[in-house]
Amino acid sequence: MKLTTFKKISYCSFLVLFFSFYNSCASYRVKSEKIETALKQGDIKQALTAVDANSFLKKKRNLLLYYFEKGKVLYLNGEYELSNTFLNKADAFIEENKKYIGGKVLGVLLNPETETYTGEDFEKVAIHYYKALNYIFLNKFDEALVEAKRINLKLQEINDSYPIGKKNRYTSDGFALNIQGILYEASGDINNAFISYRNAVDLYLANEGSFFGTPLSEQLKNDVLRTASSLGFTNELERYEKLLETTYVPITDKTEGELILFWENGLVPYKDQTLYNFTVLPGNSDGVVSIYNEDLGITLPIPVDTGNDRKKDFSDIETFSVAFPKYVKRNPYYSNATAIKDSIRMNFQLAQNYEEVAFKTLKDRTLREIGKAAIRLGTKKISEHLLRNENEDLGAALGIFNALTEHADTRNWQSLPQHIYYARIPLKKGENTISISLITPNGVSDEKTFHITGKKGIQFKKIITLQSF
């Protein structure tokens, strides 16, 4: 469009354009509200319907989100084969779009949400965790083990792609190593189970006993000691007893296998945006630079001399705005849970803290993408100043429009849990009754009870409580 054409654009046109663009910039959380509401209410069927009815997810640039949400909700619904079909599509989509250029150019120049969404790093990894779980519940332990191994391989591959000084802190995953140990043990390979448990323990110890908000659990400590003892690895047993400051006490009670019970609680933080706004306003004698930050909620007026002999017009307004994504925490309805069998209470152990992973990996990514935001801001200001040369007031209006429509990418995999816990429950022969006591932050307790038949080997089950505030 020729610059002279802009002279013919009315301010009403700008308002129409702004409001139409503003509506399209609603956050992904708003656009996926029906899915979230169904999940919070535990209505998985309705969540599936809402995913399929969401037109935003069907846009080509958002297809990965559709595969993410559909795959996860199908997992929640117990449709494990179909869930893996969609998670495989997600994995393939990421690979196919690694070198996609078109959307990235638009994202740099206009708005990051116009880019094809290729997932946060931890979301790419979570694909393999849920594929592993799907295979576990299908009793395909070999396939589950392959996916569990791919978690740390994927993390290494992602981190190797970043330059020195801009790498992620999320370089390994303790729960992935723990899952490998459980799967090896389920298939009777105690030697490799010990190695996996040992690698997980070493990861936590190398990080002062906690990794991405997940502490080294008492269960994992016991598992590395137990498998070392069963293999007759006396030196290793004594070494880890010393490192873990504990003494291994063998369990003498006879059991008929055990249950690994996973508990997914709450929902992962959702994405919003934080705006850094800079506005130069005309004043009686001096202009004022108002620097406002949404997160801090403060405005700092800084006087700037604009020349007393200059007329102060609408066109004197200079507005700058840069948007970055941020995560907003959702508080789960339940804060704690205990498994009860034969009057014995067993605490769930925290295994994965997706809330902590999300916050820290986004911070790492933001530091890498400041340059892209600067290019986007610079491109908008160049277009504004070119228009100012033709029409001062329209140039100022475009500046305001550019600032108001600056928008961060708020897309993320919203059906992931906030935390994943697990408990290892010994089973007796025949029917076992297990009660789960779910505790709210206010101390209110809800009970869930189920029955399971004890048999040799390891069995798996999950409970889901996605309710959040």
Provide a brief overview of the structure.
46% of the residues lie in helices and 22% in strands.
Q: List low-confidence stretches.
A: 1-23, 105-109
- Overall shape: elongated
Largest sheet: 4 strands, mixed
- Compute the number of helices: 17
Percent of residues in β-strands? 15-25%
Helix and strand arrangement:
Layout: H1 11-24, H2 28-31, H3 33-40, H4 44-53, H5 55-58, H6 63-76, H7 80-96, H8 102-109, H9 121-137, H10 141-160, H11 174-186, H12 190-206, E1 210-211, E2 214-215, H13 218-230, H14 234-243, E3 258-265, E4 270-281, E5 286-293, E6 298-305, E7 318-328, E8 336-341, E9 344-347, E10 349-353, H15 354-368, H16 370-390, H17 392-404, E11 419-426, E12 430-439, E13 445-454, E14 458-465
Parallel strand pairs: 3-14
Antiparallel strand pairs: 1-2, 3-11, 4-5, 4-7, 5-6, 8-9, 8-12, 10-11, 12-13
Helix pairs in contact: 1-17, 3-4, 4-6, 6-7, 7-9, 9-10, 10-11, 11-12, 12-13, 13-14, 16-17
How would you characterize the overall build of this protein?
The protein is an alpha+beta fold and 469 residues long. Strand 5 (286-293) and strand 6 form a beta hairpin. It has helices at 11-24, 28-31, 33-40, 44-53, 55-58, 63-76, 80-96, 102-109, 121-137, 141-160, 174-186, 190-206, 218-230, 234-243, 354-368, 370-390, 392-404; strands at residues 210-211, 214-215, 258-265, 270-281, 286-293, 298-305, 318-328, 336-341, 344-347, 349-353, 419-426, 430-439, 445-454, 458-465. The chain is elongated and about 85 Å long. Helix 12 (190-206) crosses helix 13 and helix 16 runs antiparallel to helix 17 (392-404). The relative contact order is 0.14. The strands form four sheets. The chain has a four-stranded mixed beta sheet. Strands 6-5-4-7 form a four-stranded antiparallel beta sheet. Strands 9-8-12-13 form a four-stranded antiparallel beta sheet, with no helix packed on it.
